[in-house]
Each structure stands twice: as C-alpha cells, then as structure tokens.
Amino acid sequence: MPIKEMHLMENRNNSFDIIRLIAAFMVLYSHQFSLSGLQEPIFLKWNSLGYIAVAIFFSISGYFMPKSFGRSDNFIRFIIKRCKRIFPGLFACSIFMYCFIGVIFNTNSISEYLLSGDALTKVIRNSVFIQEQVPGVFSNFKYKEIINGSLWTLPIEFTCYILIGFFLSISNSWKSPAILLLTSVIATIALNYQTDLYAYYSVPFKFLALFMIPFSLGSLLSFTESSWWRYRFKIIAVSFLMLLATNAKPEIQIIGLLCVTTITIISGLSIKDTVINGRFDISYGVYIYAFPVQQIMINLVTHDFYLSLLISSVCTIILSSISYRYVERPFLTRKMKSDIKLEFN
User: Fold this and answer.
1) 201/187 Cα distance (integer angstroms)
2) 4: which residues sit within 8 A by CB, 6+ positions away?
3) Is 37 left (phi over 0), alpha (psi -120 to 50) or beta?
4) Cα dist. 138→214, 296, 339 in Å?
5) SS3 of 231-264
6) Count of domains for the chain
7) 295 near 141, Cβ under 8 Å?
8) Dihedral sign (CA 198, 200, 205, 211)
9) Is-contact 123 98, C-beta < 8 A?
C-alpha cells in the first residue's frame, strides 16, 4: 500500500513529520559545534539544542504510542511494530559504521580487524544497543575515537516503548501515561542528587527518567486531546511564559521538558503539512547517520564550519534517503492490511 494512502490518522495533515525532520537537523547543527571543538549552543541557559531536539523526538513518539497500541492486538504486536521502526535502520547503520568506517578509517591492522570477526561482532552488538568503539578509528580527530555519539538515546527510547506498552496493557487509558509521568518526575528529582550515573544495558537511569517526562506527557496529551484542545492557544502561551520564568533556574530541568513537549504537540496538531504529509520520513536516518558523516567531513574534508556543515547535511540526506527507501520503508510496509501509516511514528 502506498505510504500516502496509509497516512490515515485523525489529524491527517499534521506537521509532526516536518517537526521531526527539523529536530534531526537541530541535533546535526548542535553536534557540528562539539565535533569542531566548540561549545554547543545553549537554549535558555538550560541545555544544548541537541538535547532539546531529543526531547522533541520523545514527545512526538510518546504522542503516537496510544494510537499505535490501540491498533495493535496485544503487547507483543505493539512491540513488534516498535522493533520494525528501530532495528532495521540501526542494523544498516551498524554495518556502515563497523564494516565501512571501521575499515576505511582504521589506522590499526585492517586484516586483523576483519579476520578476527571483530567487525561482525560489533555490528551485532551495536544492533542491539551495545555500542563499542573500534581502536584506531578516528583516533586523530578532534572528537577522538567516537564513531557515533547519537545512538545512546535509542535504548532509552525503546525502554520507553516497553514501559508504555506494559502500562497500556494493564489500563488503556490516560491513567497509564499519567502514572509514568508522575514517576518520571519524582525519579528525575531523586536522581538529580546522585553523582554516579547508574545504567543497565546501555540505559542510564537518570536520562531514562528525564526523557520519560516528554514521552509520557506526549502520551497523556494524546489521550486527553478532546479536553484541552479548545484551550490550546492559552496553554501554549503559558508554556512559553514558564520557559522564560524558569530561565537559568534549576526548575527548568523538569518544567522546561513539560513546556517543550506541550509546545511541540500543540504546534504539530495546529499547523497543517502539505509538503511531506506522509510521503517520506528521513528524520530517523538523519539522526543515526549524521554524527559519523560529520566526523569525517570536519576532520578530513574541510575545517570551515559552515562548508563542512553543508557537505555533511547533503551526505546525510543521501544516506538517510537510501536508508528510508531500501531499509526502513520495506520493513514498515510489511504488515497486515489492518495496519496503517500510524506505525511510521
């Protein structure tokens, strides 16, 4: 079924596809500074543009989860949909990282790297969120030996899928994301006093709690849309005011995420999209391919900030378009007739 025909959501022309793409390039732009050895732009004395973009991703993802779960037969079916969204693209990116970059840009013994089976092992591990570096790759770059610094958010996002799916299996109502939201806020406050970054299976608990805030609030807004829709412009105004009021204050850590999520969801539903409108979605590809491409362009092609940014953007768009057309889309469209375009979100 053509993607255009599958775009059958209640808000057919919403602009979430465009917002996701903008957020992906926000991450690319923010990383351009750090990979060039510069300070990333800070939003409202709070955090980097890349961090804000990730919060936008999580809020949009959370918004679509109740709808996706409602069209799934059970928890397993729901998780299968999420797997098809994450893992095919990640597997292809892993091959690109460890079988192309790991070979071409390796200053150590390439034959030993390949014959030892290390490349295949790293591809498999990275495809299930266990990211590893390759000794000798990017070792003389400004941002040393980091092939892809963007992938750390993926296990957090997948954990959010599991949690929301589990709670919706118990109660498919607004109460489930409300409980997750309250829990994530309390956990964020509690973990804020911890100096150690505890993690399990590549999931740092502090960041899981943080990004569960926009994710669960997005889900809650989805469930309660009919209740707040008439007040959306007042809500968005209050959100902007709260962002300004908490500027440079510790409270913005939580209030900022709540406001960014609210602004993102209301904007996505209020602004109509006639450009992308379900025709394509390269935001995921841009997110997972931009970092290694920028590493190469900044260090080996040109040190000029904006020229390398332009070249990196063009190359990333090409790679993400190939990924969408030949990897992500075939898996996403391989489903039963009852499934719709909702699975692309």
Assistant:
1) 19
2) 277, 278, 279
3) left
4) 34, 8, 43
5) HHHHHHHHHHHHHHHCCCCCCHHHHHHHHHHHHH
6) 1
7) yes
8) positive
9) yes
Written as one letter, the residue type at 2 is P
70, 332 Cβ separation under 8 angstroms: no
pLDDT in tens, 143-178: 887 899 999 999 999 999 999 999 999 999 999 999
The Cα–Cα gap between 293 and 62 comes to 29
Answer whether 299's CB lies under 8 Å from 36's CB.
no
Burial degree of 328 (CB within 10 A; 0-12, 13-18, 19+): buried
Give dist(CA 81, CA 122) in Å, integer.
Answer: 25
**Tens-place pLDDT, residues 95-147:** 999 999 989 998 888 888 888 888 899 999 999 999 888 888 998 888 887 89
Residue 233 and residue 214: Cα distance in Å, rounded?
19
Q: What values do phi and psi take at 59, rounded to 5?
A: -65, -40
C-alpha to C-alpha distance for 83 and 331, rounded to whole angstroms: 10
Q: Are 327 and 92 in contact (CB under 8 A)?
A: yes
Q: Closest Cα partner for 54 from 283, 301, 245?
A: 283
Residue bearing tokens 């926009």: 214
Q: How far is CA 141 from CA 47, 110, 300, 314, in A?
A: 25, 19, 9, 21
Separation CA 160–CA 62 (nearest Å): 8
Task: Read off the tokens for 71.
Answer: 């069209």
Rg value, the chain, Cα? 20
Tokens representing residue 132 in the block? 């590893």
Range of the domain at 277: 3-344
3-class DSSP state for residue 195? coil
